[in-house]
Q: What sequence folds into this?
């Protein structure tokens, strides 16, 4: 299947700093990527839809100025958590469709990035 | 709108026990249905899928059948192993480039 890779897998930062998480589609082009946040009780929340070459579409309640998404190429989307606070600590997961997934609706997921804000 | 409801966990089973995790959905049209698995500390992996009514998805001993009449996609495995301990997510997708709609996940713990 298609491969989606995230980096870093774990990051610890101080409160007030910004953190960038990269999501790459390794063997396919993804015009659209999706960013999810996973809360401690495991539920997945869709944060935003990242569109190559245009602005991301954010879900209701997600602060676009805090969670900056850039989709500069067909293989790379980045999520930047700006001025991070402890409540932003979470597991962030990106996903994309590629290849056969585009026909069946299947999403391929990155490994996830665990953010801890001290 | 579309939604997925799956049984609340956690589910704790002994090794070799039979597993069922219930999943029902609400959708307009004819969605594709998926089960994803998340092992501790990892991202989500596709476990199996079905794209039309009466299709059966299967992988690693897990099975689920797309039942349109009951709007269900229950996950089953005849004999679980300790290595099956993970969180299982049921999900659906409309046609087109839309995000998946996930259930809340069911944590499975298998003890030896």
A:
């Amino acid at each position: 299947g298609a491969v989606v890779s995230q980096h870093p897998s774990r990051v610890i930062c101080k409160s007030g700093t910004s953190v960038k998480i990269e999501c790459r589609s390794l063997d396919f082009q993804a015009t659209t990527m999706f960013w999810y946040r996973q809360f401690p009780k495991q539920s997945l929340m869709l944060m935003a839809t990242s569109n190559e070459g245009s602005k991301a579409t954010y879900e209701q309640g997600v602060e676009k100025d805090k969670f900056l998404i850039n989709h500069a190429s067909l293989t790379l989307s980045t999520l930047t958590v700006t001025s991070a606070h402890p409540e932003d600590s979470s597991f962030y997961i990106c996903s994309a469709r590629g290849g056969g997934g585009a026909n069946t609706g299947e999403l391929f997921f990155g490994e996830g990035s665990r953010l801890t804000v001290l | 709108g579309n939604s997925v409801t799956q049984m609340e966990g956690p589910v704790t089973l002994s090794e070799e026990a039979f597993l069922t995790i219930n999943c029902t959905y609400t959708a307009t049209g004819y969605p594709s249905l998926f089960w994803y698995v998340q092992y501790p500390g990892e991202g989500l992996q596709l476990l199996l899928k079905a794209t039309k009514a009466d299709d059966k998805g299967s992988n690693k001993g897990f099975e689920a059948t797309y039942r349109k009449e009951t709007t269900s996609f229950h996950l089953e495995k005849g004999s679980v192993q300790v290595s099956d301990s993970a969180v299982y997510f049921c999900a659906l997708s409309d046609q087109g480039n839309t995000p998946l709609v996930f259930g809340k996940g069911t944590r499975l713990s298998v003890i030896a």
The mean pLDDT of chain B is 93. The radius of gyration of chain B is 13 Å. Chain B touches chain A through 26 residues (CB under 8 Å).
